[in-house]
């Protein structure tokens, strides 16, 4: 009984051609920056006992927006 011949596989990453090159590759994704600021903002908003959590957490919201602007992201 003979074993089926195995095909040679390459170790190249086939998805590498899909990744952006140059400046686009260096730009950070919004989900990957300002994680601490986002967590603090979310925690404040979720657990605020104030009638208006957005007003109560304005300081945390502003810190998150400032951090995101530092990476080139504009938030409303």
UniProtKB/TrEMBL annotation:
Subcellular location(s) of the protein: Mitochondrion intermembrane space
Listed GO biological process terms: mitochondrial respiratory chain complex IV assembly
Chief location of this protein within or outside the cell: mitochondrion
PROSITE patterns from the UniProt entry: CHCH
Family membership: Belongs to the COX17 family.
Cellular component, GO, one term: mitochondrial intermembrane space
Residue sites binding Cu cation per the record: 31-32
Gene3D superfamilies associated with the record: CytochromE C oxidase copper chaperone (1.10.287.1130)
Protein name according to UniProt: Uncharacterized protein
Annotated keywords: Chaperone, Copper, Disulfide bond, Metal-binding, Mitochondrion
Organism field: Aureobasidium namibiae CBS 147.97
Molecular functions per Gene Ontology: copper chaperone activity; copper ion binding
InterPro entries: Cys_alpha_HP_mot_SF (IPR009069), Cyt_c_oxidase_Cu-chaperone (IPR007745)
Record has Nucleotide-binding as a keyword: no
Record carries keyword Metal-binding: yes
